[in-house]
């Protein structure tokens, strides 16, 4: 009989953690000896080494998927650079060192495309992560996250640890933060459209709608995260993203939300509001070379699923 395998997921109650829970509970290829533990902040403060020691002693993980981080919007990142740097460094250092000390077989950490150099060429790929400074607005967070990539290689070279990292593009789906003020693009638009339909007011989208983004449904990211955990054994990071040709405009996203919400009122694009960066294209060439057959959920189907979940869970979801 195979030895039991325990997969520990930090930050397991958010958007990606919830998608992982849904995927593994229905995964037909999941080994019978594999159990999963999803941590939330209530399980212990990952900034404190003794708390992380206790978590590892309690659960004795075989593998770890590390999602937990101190995150925030633009203004929080600008105001609290020291805290975003120090707290993420502490969290990541505690998790990585506990993985080494407890002989964890695999650690998969999450990075972000926002930690890439501010001045760069597109599409970005994994080799460009350290090719220049990040945008000054989030440099505390960005440098702390970049160090995960550096330390994955260092732990591998010095101790032979199988540590790696995933860099996802824009994620959306059930269990997201649907705040109009602080949420990301798709959940914010879903909530705005819901309010417009409920109140009989126009659905106003900030900006011209022209910028392009690569949006990925959380279920796809969950499936590919499990694949990385089981099959990708390099300390070098891997970008998980839809293909470059699947970039869509914010206008197309807004109209997909309108269709999914069955909103029949006026749609207004307020171009007095800033568009932000026109495009931030990422290359998934490495992913496609290793897993060419993966079919991503299309943007209209994914948005329909996210809208249905939001409407069904409106009273209790994060918003």
Uncertain spans: none
Which sequence of strands runs across the widest sheet?
A: 2-1-3-4-5-10
Give the end-to-end Cα distance, rounded to a whole number of Å: 46 Å
Mean pLDDT: 94
Secondary-structure-derived class: alpha/beta
Number of helices: 10
What would a concise description of this structure say?
With 319 residues, the chain is an alpha/beta fold. It has helices at 15-26, 49-59, 74-79, 81-101, 139-159, 185-199, 218-231, 250-261, 285-290, 299-312; strands spanning 5-10, 34-38, 63-66, 106-110, 163-168, 170-172, 203-206, 212-213, 215-217, 238-240, 248-249, 267-270.
What does this protein look like?
Helix content is 41%, strand content 15%. It has helices at residues 15-26, 49-59, 74-79, 81-101, 139-159, 185-199, 218-231, 250-261, 285-290, 299-312; strands spanning 5-10, 34-38, 63-66, 106-110, 163-168, 170-172, 203-206, 212-213, 215-217, 238-240, 248-249, 267-270. The strands form 4 sheets. The protein has a 6-stranded parallel sheet with strand order 2-1-3-4-5-10, sandwiched between helices. The protein has a two-stranded parallel sheet with strand order 6-9. β1, α1 and β2 form a beta-alpha-beta unit. It starts with a strand and ends in a 7-residue tail after the last helix.
